[in-house]
Amino acid sequence: MFRFFKKKYEPDPDAPDWWQEYERETMGLDLKARVDQVKFSVLDVESTGLDVERDRILSFAMIPVLQEEMIPAGSFECLVQQEYFDEETVPIHELRREDIKEGIPEKEFLKIIVSLLKGTVIVGHHIGFDIAIINMALKRNFGNLQLRNEVIDTGHLYQKLYASRFLYPKYQKQVPTLDELAADFGLEFQDRHSAMGDTIMTGLVFLKFVRRLKGSGRLLLKDLM
Q: Which of 17, 75, 99, 203 has the highest Cβ tally under 10 A?
């Protein structure tokens, strides 16, 4: 689990109202809450590359999870307008420069997703990168604002739940990829390396973990950390 903030909420009087509302609702989450009472936001970012200082967000997808169900009606997906673009990464994300011209301006995009993410726990695979590149975009547009959500990485949760598998050389090098987890659970990808395709797969994997843990008894948010 990633922690990017102190749990105590100290409002910044200079922050915009929409940000103060986000912090109030997000930083009061109780780690002892039952999982079926917590709202999760499964998300994925597709970007121009993996350098969080240089590269930019091209697309974003999010699906809420509540009471062990993904909520398609609450999902959000968009392209993001960017001046910077790296043609070499097009074969990976399959987004062209002309595609993102139809996207949302980055500053507007950030305000939208902050509103969607307030009061939720973020879930993603190798989520540290997604958080870092969103935070860099926030810094670029709004100064010192940074995401305050609790964060769960499905890769690290897999390591926790299946610790014995990491005793073998096959798993010692790194956390399994999302493709490896999907294969492990017999799940088939739709639109791999699209933000929504990866989000849906991450959500399915996450729910398998939740149901496995719940089978052992009462499940609290802290049990996923």
A: 203
